[in-house]
Amino acid sequence: MDWPIAIVVGSVAIGAVLGLIAPGRGRLLDAIRTFAVVSSVAVVVGRLIPDAVSTGGPRVLIAVAVAFIAPWLIERAAHEDPEHDHSSTMGLELSYWGLMVHKLGDGLALGSFTGEAHVGHHHGDVLTAIAVHSVPVIALITLAFTSAHGRNSG
Q1: What's the structural domain count of the chain?
Q2: What's the domain range around 41?
Q3: Is residue 35 part of a domain?
């Protein structure tokens, strides 16, 4: 059970390092953003949704649709508020907490794919996908925080 923990810690560390070295490097930043989007979509559409549907049935697609639409609805509702201000760091803070919840979900996935039900076989593809999509997401959050608060904030 130690190697799933190593996957999580390693992917977060690599993402943070990339986020710290990327400012001022336009091509690296573009590559990280592109990789974040492509890898996330590939993992979700190619593996996670099909596995969830095969286990939970088509009703899982309702949760997928809600998760996809919710950020847009929240942003739209925020624009209705006259005190809504795009210069606020509230979105950045919410993104951070969203990432924490997301990483909790990644941890649950790692635990379920490495638990007793999977003794004797492994799901290296899922574990790799979790690690690979985490790196660019962590890098982008790190970039956003360093842009807003500086490298020595915290």
Answers
A1: 1
A2: 2-149
A3: yes
